[in-house]
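The instructor's notes for this session suggest beginning with a concrete chain rather than abstract definitions. Hand out the sequence below and ask the class to guess, before any prediction is shown, which regions might be ordered.
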Amino acid sequence: MKFLANENFPLASVIKLKEAKLDLASIGIDNPSISDKEVIEAAIKENRIILTFDKDYGELVYKFGYKPKAGVIYFRRKRYQPEEPADWVIELLSSKDFQFEGLFTVVDENSIRQRKI
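After discussion, reveal the predicted structure:
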């Protein structure tokens, strides 16, 4: 699996995921300030799962028809330490209950929901 961390994904978590040997590209490091549309287009082109805290990706997928085949993981959490999102990703990947391809995954404090893209 390949991942693309959106610019709002904490740098400490990007570093932790890279140290865990995940194939992870980071907008904040590689292409800061590009638009959400450009991020989703890069994810589609490179077949990467988007990691984001930005709700606008739901609109890009469901209103404007972008189809990132690898999937999107949207974190709807407001309070967290900078390394915690990496732990959440690692926990999701270790669970056999979740697949991400073709799915929009929403992770909040109380649940994890998935919907087809």
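Then share the key points. The radius of gyration is 13 Å. The chain has one domain: 2-116.
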